[in-house]
Amino acid sequence: MYKDIVIVSAVRTPFGRYCGSLREYDYFDLGALPMKEVLARVNVPGEQVDEVFWGVGDTSVCKDVFTPVAARQTLIKAGLPAETPSVAIDKACVSAMSAVHFGCRAMVAGEIQCAIGGGATSFSQEPQIVRGLRWQGFRIGDVKMEDPLFALGYKDFNPVSWKTRSLPSGTRTSTPFPWIRMTWPRNTGFPGRSRMSGP
Question: Which of 9, 38, 112, 118 is a Cys-bridge partner for 50, taking CB atoms 3.0 to 4.6 Å apart?
């Protein structure tokens, strides 16, 4: 189906540790870095990109968590024309790969000829949450602050991929279905180089 689709450039930032050296990077800046570089490496002008498909699996890391328009804000920071159409995709951990897939589908359908597909996230930028503060207020008593990274509540609504069960303490635990394990020959050194590579 995709035999005529060619990936001409692929770039990513290095993996950063949680609250490590990349912790100060804003979500849009973090995504704009590889988006800009992926075009520079093959000398493709931004005007040639017909559409951007961008994965954002966690909008709470964006400055505007309700309507971040993540794909558009990222492409503008990357220097692409403001008129470039874009789609933000939320499919949790597979958001970026789904974005690549949807870009390929659009090309196969003959809708576009050139696309950027990818995504970004930053757990280090994840905010702490105080629920009910806007309308309830807290004139007296303790205030509970939540860490959205700890709960990962999307699993509670995804029975196809995860089974969840309640514990007496009210926390959740997840039991995944079988994973597929991939191995690389030791002499290639690919896994190590893959983690170290960056723009």
Answer: 112
95-142 pLDDT tens trace: 999 999 999 999 999 999 999 999 998 888 888 888 888 887 788 888
Q: Exposed (0-12), middle (13-18) or buried (19+): which is 75, by Cβ within 10 Å?
A: buried
Q: Both tokens of residue 45?
A: 């002008």
pLDDT, tens only, 12-53: 988 888 899 888 988 899 999 999 999 999 999 999 999 999
Q: Which CATH superfamily is domain 27-125 in?
A: Thiolase/Chalcone synthase (3.40.47.10)
Q: For Cα atoms 76, 93, 159, give the angle at the middle one, nearest 5 degrees.
A: 135
Average pLDDT, the chain: 78
| Residue 53 Ramachandran class (φ > 0 left, ψ -120 to 50 alpha, else beta) | beta
pLDDT at residue 184 in the model: 45
**How much is the pTM?**
0.73
Looking from the CA of 140 toward its CB, the CA atoms found within 13 Å total: 0
* Of 40, 31, 39, nearest in space to 12 by CA: 31
